[in-house]
Amino acid sequence: MLFLYIIIYFTLSVGSIDCVDEIDAQQLLGYTLYKDGKEARVSFPLEKFQSHVAGRTFHNGRFIQRLRKKVASLHNVSLEQGTVTSLIEENGIVKGVHYKNGSGKLLTTYAPLTIVCDGCFSNLRRSLCYPKVDIPSNFVGLTLTNCNLPKENYGAIILANPSPIVFYQISSTEIRCMVNVPSEQVPSVSNGEMACYLKTQVAPKVLPELYDSFISAIEKKGNIRIAPNKIMAAAPHLTPGALLIGDALNMRHAITGGGMTVALSDVVILRDLLRPLHDLSDASPISKYLESFYTLRKPMSSTINILANVLQKIFSASSNPAMENLQHTFLGYLRLGGMFSYGASAMLCGLCPSPLSLAFHFFSIAIYGVGRLLLPFPSPRRLWDGAKLLWVSILTKHLYNNME
User: Fold this and answer.
1) Of 117, 166, 106, which Cα lies nearest the Cα of 316?
2) 284-293: burial string, b at 16+ Cβ within 10 Å, e else
3) CB burial readout 28-52, b (16+ within 10 A) else e
């Protein structure tokens, strides 16, 4: 499945912007949110940066191949490709891995430090953390052609009932559409139920300029793909000789496209921790030293994780009157512009990894929503709706408060 990746943080911290060259990656400057004929544009706060600094959307495989090519070009790196089957552990210390090469031969390799980064479907994390994976929904993906988004370089998020719909450019000729569907309600693709669901329940909510291409994408054989949205808090246990990073360690809902931002932030933090070390052979003290990695990553990971998980909760509950009210409140808050809009987008793209800032905006949205309901004249009904809105805001924030 091809997801949206916001890599502004990667551009600024690593400087490897050339990894999105030659893959037809598209600049992303923000989102436009649509609901009931109203819209709110959210732009990333990029005024202080050079023109090449922006979000990027692309085909995932192309980007990964560019990363591999860049790594392979370094004089002190040797690249060996294979499928890791298990970690090698001796006396509680990870010594290396067992893996199969391209011809299926089982091989063994040893290293003083093994960094596990095998993604959301990791088969190695169980020996390094306490994984508790929740799958609240699935993304149904389609590739649209012969159409353009309403605003160039801006993704589109439609807050619709029954499902939020996300559109973003992945190449100069393709637009990715992602439809969020609750896990317990996913229709079958093979018997045509999914196509019927998309045409009858989702298509009427699609923007008019994208409608015809959306229908054509549904009818194109093999174009409908489904991927689970996984949520997993970071719960590592200290294991000498090994370290977890990226989605193998920690996952959030994919609706905001923050997974790559967190993963690349992990890489930067780990790079800085390893830089002064010249000997990794003594596993226990090195492991104790690297334990700080799990603390240092929290500002970025917790900010993006909580934001993503709360937004998917709000965006996916249009049938709930209180959540419907919260959606309108959120759009109105973003339409205020200035620090309100920029503050939210800065957290979204990794430029403001601050849980305190996140808490401020949650509180501000709740206050704005209550004020919006009570003005100009409070009434018993408005007071009751305001109380429900405040309660839902607090409850939603609390549900994901510990998602790191």
Assistant:
1) 166
2) eebbeebeeb
3) bbbbbbbbeeebbbbbbbbeeeeee
Q: What is the pTM of this model?
A: 0.86
Q: For residue 131, what are the contacts with CB-CB under 8 A and spacing of at least 6?
A: 125, 232, 235
pLDDT in tens, 26-64: 999 999 999 988 999 889 988 888 877 888 888 888 988
Q: Is the Cβ–Cβ distance between 2 and 23 less than 8 Å?
A: no
3-state secondary structure of 234: coil
Per-residue pLDDT reduced to its tens digit, 240-265: 999 999 999 999 999 988 888 899 89
- Taken in order of first residue, the domains within the chain and their CATH numbers are 6-62+134-231 (3.30.9.100), 80-132+232-309 (3.50.50.60), 318-399 (no CATH)
Q: How far, CA to CA in Å, does 391 sit from each of 272, 311, 316, 398, 403?
A: 42, 16, 18, 10, 20
Closest by CA position to 54, among listed 91, 25, 86: 25
Question: What token pair was written down for 67?
Answer: 């990363």
Closest by Cα among 228, 156, 164, 174 to 201: 164
Residue 169 to residues 139, 140, 153: CA-CA distances in angstroms?
17, 16, 8
Q: Which two tokens stand for residue 304?
A: 């993006």
Q: Are 86 and 98 in contact (CB under 8 A)?
A: yes
> If DSSP codes are grouped into helix, strand and coil, which group holds residue 251?
strand
Contact 237, 131 (CB under 8 A): no
| Pair 261, 282: CB distance under 8 Å | no
- Strands 225-231 and 242-244, bridge-based pairing: unpaired
